[in-house]
Amino acid sequence: MDESKMFPPSKLGEYTVTQDIAEGTFGKVKMAIHTITGHKVAMKYISKAVIQREKTKTRVRREFEYMRTLRHPHIIKLYEVISTPTDIIFVLEYAGGELFNYIVTHGRMSEQRARRFFQQIIHGIEYSHRLKIVHRDLKPENVLLDDDLNVKIADFGLSNEISDGDFLTTSCGSPNYAAPEVIRGGVYAGPEIDVWSSGVILYVMLCGRLPFEDDDVQVLFQKITQGTFHLPSSLGHDARDLITQMLAVDPVKRITIQKILEHPFYKTDLPRYLQPLPPPPGPVLGALSSLVEPVQPLDFEIIEGLGRIEEDVVEQLAGRMAGVSKEDIWECLRRDDGVQGNAVKVAYLLLRDKNRLGKDRRELPNGGKKTKKIASFLLQTVGCRPKRVYYRAVYVTTGLSTCLRAATITKSKIERRAGKETAKLTWVHLPTPCFIVETICAEVLQGESMT
Question: What are the GO BP annotations of this UniProt entry (predicted)?
Answer without folding.
Answer: intracellular signal transduction
